[in-house]
Amino acid sequence: MRLKELLLSTDWGEVKQSLLRSYPDSARIMDKLQRVFETLLSLDCRGTTMRLCLAEVRPEDIDEEPYIDVFGKDGTLNRDLPDFRYFSGTAGRDFANLETSFALELVPWEEWPGMELDPSASQKYSVADLIAHCLWEMTFYGLDQGPIEKRRQEIDRRVKEPEGMAEGDKKRLITVSKAIE
Fold first, then answer.
1. Exposure string over 110-145, b if 16+ CB within 10 A, otherwise e
2. Of 48 and 171, the one with more pLDDT
3. How many CB atoms lie within 10 A of CB 102?
C-alpha cells in the first residue's frame, strides 16, 4: 500500500490526535501540519522504488525517550554503495549484506505519496500513526518545501565543493579520521 492510499483512508482528526500523542510540541503548528496533510492528498503518486519504513529507536542514554524513526529502503545493499570501500576494513559481512537505510527528510514532497509502505510498518502502527510519523519526518527542516529545498541545495553544494577545487587546495583537505586524531 502506498502512502497516498493511507492518506485517503483516514481523516485529519485521527492524524491530529496521533500527532498530539506522539509529538506534543506539534500543537503550536497544527494548522501548518494540516496544510501539509492536505497538500499530500492533492499530489499524484510519482513513481519511486523507495519503501517507507518505521522503527522504534531506544537511545543509549536512559534519560532520553524512545522515538519512531522514519526512513526509506529501496533494495540497495550496503556493499553496493559507492562509499562502501571506506567501511570495508571495519564493517563485517553482515553489515555489507544489509539493505541500506536512507534518510527521507529532504525528499521532495511529491515523492512521498508514491512510496510503498514496508509491510512490517503496517503491522506495528495504525494508519493515523503512520501518517503522523511521516508528516513529522517530512517537515523536519520546514513546514513548506522552500526551506527544505534550500537545505538540500546547500548539502549538494558542499558535497560538490571539493570537485571544483584547485589541486593545491584539494591537497590541504584531510579525512575525518585524521581530524579526530
1. ebbbbbbbbeebeeebebbbbbbbbbbbbbeeebeb
2. 48
3. 14
Checking if the pLDDT of 171 tops 90, the result is no
C-alpha cell at 84: 562502501
Residue 68 phi, psi dihedral angles, 5° rounding: -100, 125
Q: Which residues lie below 8 Å from residue 50, measured CB to CB, with a gap of 6+?
A: 72, 73, 74, 102, 104, 107, 111, 115, 116
Q: How far is CA 167 from CA 17, 162, 170, 172, in A?
A: 56, 9, 5, 9
Confidence of residue 98 (pLDDT cuts 50, 70, 90): confident
Cβ–Cβ under 8 Å, residues 71 and 138: no
d(CA 75, CA 175): 29
Name the CA dihedral angle for 114, 115, 116, 120, rounded to a multiple of 10 degrees: -150
Containing 116, the helix (H) or strand (E) segment is strand 116-117
Under the banding of pLDDT at 50, 70 and 90, the label for residue 97 is confident
Do 120 and 53 meet the contact criterion of CB atoms below 8 Å apart?
A: yes
